[in-house]
Predict the 3D structure of the following.
Amino acid sequence: MTKHSVRFLLIISVSLLVHECMYGNNIQVTNVSLTSQNTTDHFTMVKFDISWENSWRLVGGPANWDAAWVFVKYRIGAGPWKHAWLNNTGHIVPSGSAVDVGLLDPGSAYHAMTNPGLGVFIHRSGPGSGTFSLTNVQLRWNYGDNGLSDNEQVDIRVFAIEQVYVPQGSFYVGSGGGESGAFFKYDPGPATDPYFINNEGSINVGMTTGYLYYYNPSGFSGDQTGPVPAAFPKGYKAFYAMKYEISQKGYVDFLNSLTRAQQISRVRSDISTGVNLNNFVMSNDLVLIGRNGIRLISFFPFPPAPLVFFCDYNENGNQNESGDGQDIACNYLTIADVMAYLDWAGLRVMSELEFEKCGRGPVYPLPNEYAWGSNYFETVSDYLNPGFPNELPDPPTANCNVVLTYPIRCGAFATLSSTREKAGAGYYGCMELSGNVWERCVTVGSTYGRAYDGRHGDGVISDLGDANVLNWPFSVTGYGSCFRGGSCNGSTNLIRLSDREYGANPDPVGYGWSGGRGVRTAPQ
């Protein structure tokens, strides 16, 4: 952490929502500063370097690329962290790269006050692969639109979350196999052909030939009614998806940018007093359980002072050491936790149709396939280098985590030479869609879920720490949400890409095997 003094802004810290892993992309933001203040139009440039490994832009195959979703938070003095509004033009990136602004509403025109830029996607502008390093990236921050005067003293944090681009296009939901509650195209005969989605229009649901349908053998697959409205994100339109599930370091960065009242809602331990007896705050225990090492010191200030969280997987009390499990997928997350994180980051909840698109791409389904497009799987039975950035599965040939009870490092199954199947990757490059931690998605199986219209978070959560975006699932009850992709504590049937045994289960509880990831509609 570095501190730089400038004319009107004080840069104090750079925080990363990243996964620094041996075969991951090791995304880093460094050398943050502010430059070129314009006191006439009340903007300044947020300047930084960014790099990540194993970047790509492909012409053939999935014809997609990876990117970094970059956004900025600021605070005045000891006040709360707030989301910086970016301009729609005027950003500067080096040759060979491109920047796309993510507006609050990508489908509407930019407006400085009602539809600002909440962040940008930075990616390759042409084909290539390998480490992608950019220096002197500059984002135009319209601080005047945020209500700041020209002589404010503020702190700045720049965050980066790795994404993959999922291009616009048709795809199938359901595999035609025997997955519980799976989607299919209804036919009064025995056929269970996959259902084809080729636009974002409304989808009829029911026992009529050609309609989308699913059975509900578990009682948790949904109400089997519709239609699925046109506004519900179908997955046909282009979007970005987080490459990895939310990591423990990512969740710590989120917690450390909240007020005390917001922090109280987003952990399981009681942190409302000055002494915390259960200092592993997500599992609410004195000792590490469930591989979640997010921790507080035993004594801390009374409210309203916000607290500082850290990772301590090795339980020695030292903060954020190399072996402290920062890159392990964050578990014990409730649907409210996931949605608050996504709202704060300017992202949104993934629909369950988008979930299947991420795994399958445009390829015709293989019955009972996993997210990597085959029926083959080998589950991890132990961890090598536990808690370290190079944590690996044992055996090293494993490509999923379905029996270990608790999660492994994000991206742990990928190596420099692994195929999609061996890496356990979805068609476009999303990791661990099958297994590790449950994905919290929006269901088509309830009226609450079908009301979802894909609005994005605005970077601001409620005073009590909840997402407050219209038509998102309910934070308290979970109504409108579901579980997809199986987990490290379930059967191999549940990790099949089209399995919907819990496809409309709104369970709001955070378990040792529940986490999540988010998406964002691509800039238009």
